[in-house]
Amino acid sequence: MGVLRVARFRRYLFGQGISLFGDSLVPLTIAFAALEVAGPAGLGVVLAANRIPVAVLVLAGGALGDRWPRRGLMVGADVLRCVVQAASGLLLITGHAGLVALVVLQALAGVGTAVFVPAASGLVPSLVGEDQVQEATALLGLVGNVNKVASISVAGVLVAGVGPGVALLVDAATFAASALVLAGLPLPAAVRRSGRPGLWREVRDGARLVASMRWLVTLLVYGGLLQALVIGPHMVAGLLAAERNYGGAAGWAVIGVVQAAGSIAGGVVALRWRPRRPLTAAVAVGLLMVPYLVVLALGGPLWLVCVLAVLVGGQGSVAMAVQTAQVQRRVPEDARSRVAAWSQIGNLVALPASLAATGPLAAHVGAGPVLLAAAGWLSVSTVLVLATRALDLPGPSGARAPGPGAAAPAR
Predict the structure, then answer these.
(1) pTM for the complete prediction?
(2) Are residues 98 and 239 in the same domain?
(3) Buried-most residue among 58, 183, 244, 336 (CB within 10 A)?
(4) pLDDT tens digits, residue range 315-346?
(5) Is residue 209 part of a domain?
C-alpha cells in the first residue's frame, strides 16, 4: 500500500473512485431511461449509441493520448460526459426527452469514453513511477469492483425512488468531481515535440509498434479470443443456465455478487503478488475459470458454483492488474495510450459480436454445450499460449521493449 503515500496518486484515486461509481450507475439508469422514453424497441438503440462511438474512435483516442497532454484530454472528456449526462437527466425530469435526443447524447458520452480510457491508462505511470504501477492498477481495480457492488443497489434505489433523470444528474456530478481533481493534479509540464506526424499516421504507427512485439500480439490476440469465445458465451449461456437451474434472476444475481466479492479479494492479492514471470502467471491463472464453467454447464449445486465464482472474480482482478502493469512498464511512454486503445478492441468489438451470436446458438444447442465449449477453448488456448513461451518474460527488472523515438516526458 506504499503507493498511497504518493499524494498525487491519492488525489487521482479519489477522483476516479467518484467517477467510477458514477460510471457504474449508467448502464442500469440508461436502460430504464430508454424504456421510459421509447419502450423495449428503443432500449437496444440507446445502448448501442453509447458503445458504437467508443468502438469506432478508441484507436484515434489512443493516438490523441500519445500526442497531447493526457490530463487535459481526460479533463475535457469528463467535462463532455458531465454536460451530456446532465442534459439527459434534465430532459428526463422535465419530460422533454425523446429517443433521438437520448441517442445523440449517449453517442457524445461514448466519444468522451473513447478519449478518456486510453489517456487514463497512459497517465498512471506518470503519477507513481513504473515500479509502483502494479499497486496503482490493483488499487484502481479494487475501487472499481467495490463500486460495482455498491452501485447496483444505489442505481436501483435511485431509479425506483426518484427516477432515472435524477440518477443521471448524480452521474454528471461525479464526472464534474473527477474533472476538478484531475485539473488540480501536480504533474511535470508536458513538452510538445515538433514534427509529429498526422493523427491517422500515429494510429498506423501504433499498430506497427504493437505488431513488432511478439509478446504483446500474443497477449492481445489471446485476450480478444477470450472475450469472444469465453466471456461472451458465459454472459449469455450462464444466464440461461441460471434460469433453468438456479431460480432465474435471483440465482444469477447471487453468482454475480459472489464473483464481484472474489474480484475485490483478487485486487488485494494483486497488491502484493510478484511472480517471476508476470505475463505467464497472469495468463495461467485464467485456468481457474474452467471448473466454474464446467459445474455451471452441468447444473451443479449453487453453493459449489458460488465457491468457484469467487476464484473467477479473483483471477480476473489479478490478471488485469499484472498484465496492465507489465504493458505499461514495457511499452515506451509515448506509445502507451495507443497500445491501451488496442487492448480495448476485445471488449469493444469481439465481446458485442460474441453476445449477438451466442444468443441464437445457445437457444439452438442449449446453454450447457455452449459453456462446455467455452471451458474447452479456455483450457486449450491457455495451454497453447503458455507452450509458445512468448509471454515468458522476466519481472519488473526486465527492460522495456524498444519503440519509435525517445520516450516523451511524463504528461
Answers:
(1) 0.70
(2) no
(3) 336
(4) 998 998 888 888 878 887 777 778 777 877 76
(5) yes
